[in-house]
Specification:
The chain has about 170 residues and is of the alpha+beta class. The protein is built from six helices and five strands. A hairpin with a 6-residue loop joins strand 3 (about 45) and strand 4 (about 55).
Length: about 170
């Protein structure tokens, strides 16, 4: 049996900026942003102020964030985290925000990210990787992450990702 590592998807519910308040109002959610907490303690997502994909150290005020822990096979986490590094520096997916989140047409840029799309993509990558490798010990992880595979990644808002990850994490 393979060993596991813990990662988390963390959801911002603090006061935030005017833009974050608008996101909450539009999505009818307490969450305006999310981050992927890696096994090394760094965070990966699109920076909510500079609109660029990055991996960095962060210090979270626990009262401002909802944390959903996920355990995955170590070798899968390692590959997801290497892939995240390759995402660093990519620009914000404004087209996806407008045409997938606001107008809900499912149109997005496949090489650009917004926070929930990037985090869902990381989990979807883990799911597809485990399915492709096909080890029997991955079966329960694949079953849990199958919820991610049911929704196109560009359709995930922080709230929709939270609802999905909450089921995976429980």
């Amino acid at each position: 049996m393979s060993t596991t590592k813990n990662v988390s998807i963390v959801f911002y519910k603090g006061t935030g900026t005017l833009a974050e308040k608008l996101i909450r109002m539009w999505t009818k959610s307490p969450f305006s942003h999310c981050e992927f907490r890696r096994s090394d303690g760094l965070y990966h997502s699109n920076d909510r102020f500079r609109f660029i994909s990055r991996t960095q150290e962060m210090h979270l005020d626990q009262s401002d964030w909802e944390i959903c822990d996920i355990s995955l096979p170590s070798e899968i986490v390692d590959r997801v985290e290497r892939r995240q590094i390759r995402k660093n520096g990519t620009k914000y997916d404004w087209m996806g925000i407008v045409f997938s989140q606001v107008f809900r047409l499912g149109i997005h840029d496949k090489k650009r990210w917004f926070c929930s799309k990037s985090n869902a993509d990381d989990l979807l990558y883990a799911y597809r990787l485990m399915k492709r490798i096909g080890k029997s010990e991955y079966r329960s992880f694949i079953e849990e992450l199958s919820l991610i595979a049911d929704i196109p990644i560009q359709n995930f808002s922080p709230e929709k990702l939270y609802q999905t990850v909450k089921k995976i994490a429980s």
